[in-house]
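User: Sequence recovery, please. Input:
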């Protein structure tokens, strides 16, 4: 009968060892899961920071284009006004080739400035 008690104690010690080993494995699994979640969150934050920097660069470029358009617009209007005062339309309203070239250049510059500001450029027909 003492051997039965020894066998029972031996089985109990093996059961405890197995249980504690599985508890250690479970703790290791939990630690790895938490680490994976943390790494995923850090990667998400890095992606967010990169996108924020990209949008900031786009915003700066847009501001530059808007400022350039604001600077160019008055000169285009002045140039057109100066040309219309300097050489008014003839009585029969036929535009000279030189005047037509100046008007087309002004239209092209205005369309390019509008396209540079993020607005779709629509071509104005010459005739």
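Assistant: Recovered sequence (127 residues):
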């Amino acid at each position: 009968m003492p051997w039965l008690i020894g066998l029972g104690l031996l089985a109990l010690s093996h059961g405890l060892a197995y249980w504690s080993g599985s508890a250690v494995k479970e703790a290791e699994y939990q630690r790895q899961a938490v680490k994976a979640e943390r790494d995923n969150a850090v990667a998400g934050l890095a992606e967010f920071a990169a996108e924020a920097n990209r949008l900031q660069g786009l915003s700066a470029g847009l501001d530059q284009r808007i400022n350039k358009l604001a600077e160019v617009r008055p000169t285009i209007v002045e140039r057109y006004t100066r040309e219309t005062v300097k050489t008014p339309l003839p009585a029969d309203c036929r535009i000279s080739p030189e005047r037509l070239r100046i008007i087309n250049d002004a239209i092209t510059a205005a369309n390019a400035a509008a396209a540079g500001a993020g607005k779709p450029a629509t071509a104005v027909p010459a005739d």
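The chain has two helices and no strands.
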